[in-house]
Amino acid sequence: MSWNTFGRLLRVTTFGESHGPAIGAIVDGCPPGIPLSEDDIQPYLDRRRPGQSRFTTQRREADRVRILSGVFSDDVITEQVTTGTPIALLIENTDQRSKDYSEIRDRYRPGHADYTYEAKYGIRDYRGGGRASARETACRVAAGAVARRIIPQVEIRAALVQMGPHRINRDNWSWAEVDSNPFFCPDAEAVKVWEEYLDSIRKSGDSVGAVVEVIASGVPAGWGAPVYARLDQDIAAALMSIPAAKGVEIGAGFAAAAMTGSEAADEMYIHDGEVRFTKNNSGGILGGISSGQDIIARMAVKPTSSILVPRRTITRGREEAEVITKGRHDPCVGIRAVPVAEAMMALVLADHYLMHRGQTGRG
Predict the structure, then answer these.
(1) Distance (Å, rounded) from C-alpha 339 to C-alpha 212?
(2) 3-class DSSP string for 150-189
(3) The pLDDT of residue 350
């Protein structure tokens, strides 16, 4: 019962540690006959890859993925396709610096899982946090790329909408801008502010939190299930499983608490024979089932706990001490959480698509 697997029909098991020889994922339950190659996965890993700007960790990992099983091609089937058997994905670690963590092997880092891991297992991998490291999220991104191939009719995109206290101006939202700056920010004006702000945070040895918004378009009405397999429930759980996530909201989220019923209700009408809604406070999900609107979720990410600012802590021997975490760390882990949020959304939606098809016979 290690809980390294998630999903119902589409099941993903990730493995490996931050400073081990490799990390990876086993994707089981993928239907057969779906075209899939390493080239379909690599672009998503490249978006999450570390060391691409001064605003992320300077650990240099190529994050090249290898498909070890679950696909097939020959002289007859010239395009490589899934076989319906487990798909094994492997990503080698090539730039570990375990020595950076030698000074904290006996000290618990405040905000990290050091103390709780040792309390549970009686042992911990202090080199970069082991399984608790955000390095594990590369496995999710690779698996999420497989999930996208199962539901190509769904477009999943995410953006950073807040860094520390600085929010975007939603009137400036441009998806084209998201991949044009190092923050996955949809507001070109906010980028300038964020650059100066994060530079000051980074140079002070501190870190800052962020909010990621992920939107799925093209999901038809009907995916999900009431009560115990609600679509919003599974999305929230998937996003909360991302390291450093501290809160998730769907649609209007916590803002709905300040609304009246007349303000919150997404009124409905018919346009050219199709169901339409006047608003989307529900975030595309009603009663745990998709409504056909865009599915919208936001995730709050806490500041990176590995910082150069001295913090009070205790040692394994229960002595009070001070700790500074050296090494290469993200001053804002929310930046690289953007493609991870997309991947988790893709995995949940692909899983619910397969469940919906299995129960109703419809896609």
Answers:
(1) 10
(2) HCCCCEEEEEEEEECCEECCHHHCCHHHHCCCCCCCCCHH
(3) 98
Task: Write down the pTM of the prediction.
Answer: 0.93
Q: Which residues pair with 22 in a beta bridge?
A: 92
* Dist CA 349 CA 347 (whole Å): 6
Q: What is residue 81's DSSP assignment? A: E
The backbone torsions φ and ψ at residue 177, rounded to the nearest 5 degrees and listed phi first, read -75, -25
- Measured CA to CA, the distance from residue 142 to residue 63 in angstroms comes to 10
Q: How far apart are CA 2 and CA 234, in angstroms?
A: 19
How would you write 187-236 as a 3-class SS string?
A: CHHHHHHHHHHHHHHHHCCCCCCEEEEEEEECCCCCCECCCCCCHHHHHH
Q: How many CB atoms lie within 10 A of CB 109?
A: 20
Buried b (16+ CB within 10 A) or exposed e, 296-324: bbbbbbbbbbbbeeeeebeeeeeeeeebe
What separation in angstroms does the CA of 217 have from each of 16, 140, 285, 291, 345?
Answer: 33, 20, 12, 11, 11
Measured distance CA(31)–CA(81) in Å, rounded: 10
pLDDT in tens, 313-335: 888 889 998 888 776 678 899 99
Q: How far is CA 358 from CA 58, 111, 354, in A?
A: 45, 42, 6
Name the percent of the chain in helix, strand, coil, to the closest 5. Answer: 30, 25, 45
SS3 of residue 346 by DSSP = helix
Judged by DSSP in three states, 105 sits in coil
Measured distance CA(352)–CA(234) in Å, rounded: 9
Specify burial of residue 218 (Cβ count, 10 A radius: 0-12, 13-18, 19+): middle
Task: Return the HEC string of 269-330.
Answer: EEECCEEEECCCCCCCEECCEECCCCEEEEEEECCCCCCCCCEEEEECCCCEEEECCCCCCC
pLDDT in tens, 182-216: 999 999 999 999 999 999 999 999 999 999 999 99
Alpha-carbon distance of 161 to 214, in angstroms, equals 10
- pLDDT at residue number 78: 79
